[in-house]
Design a protein that fits this description.
This protein has about 160 residues and is an alpha+beta fold. The chain has 6 helices and 7 strands, in the order E-E-H-E-E-E-H-E-H-H-H-H-E. It has one domain.
Length: about 160
């Protein structure tokens, strides 16, 4: 781990290791779900808007424990503006800030929904990613999450390729 300029921690994992190819798919994903493993990765957006495909997910980094919001935009418009066919970006909330994110999201969630979620999984990282999904699922997830964090003084870092 290395320190970022804002004092948080950046994972030393390279972009290829944070890529979507690492997600279990097909039978592997189904077997994880059937084994009752907590799903610490959720999809926030998967859609095509004109000539751009947008995929955004939230997950807990298995190495450093940070909350990661990861996006990937692909398509001809991206290539036109950036000179390459895809653009990846991350918003990283370090471990020491995850409690503030969870508390704020719990405060925004109806008590009846919190009770439902309490019966479905643990109240730590699993609940955190579920609440992120419930409150930030859209093609504007990254900008909405940034504005939300900024309004609450929650520290996060940005990375992009």
């Amino acid at each position: 781990m290395e320190k970022d300029p804002m004092g948080g921690l950046w994972p030393t994992i390279g972009p290829t290791e944070l890529s979507f190819a690492e997600k279990p798919t097909g039978e592997a994903a189904n077997s994880l779900e059937s084994m009752g493993e907590p799903q610490l990765r959720v999809e926030l957006c998967k859609k095509k808007l004109g000539k751009v495909e947008i995929y955004i997910e939230a997950y807990i980094d298995p190495v450093c424990g940070a909350l990661i919001i990861h996006g990937l935009d692909t398509g001809p418009v991206v290539e036109e503006y950036l000179g390459k066919s895809d653009y990846e970006y991350w918003r990283i909330v370090p471990c020491q800030e995850k409690g503030a994110v969870l508390a704020a999201l719990q405060g925004m969630t109806r008590p009846v929904r919190l009770k439902q979620l309490a019966t479905m999984g643990d109240q730590g990282d699993w609940l955190l990613v579920q609440l992120v999904k419930e409150h930030f699922s859209s093609d504007a997830a990254i900008s909405c999450f940034e504005e939300w964090c900024n309004a609450r003084g929650i520290v996060y870092t940005c990375q992009s390729l």
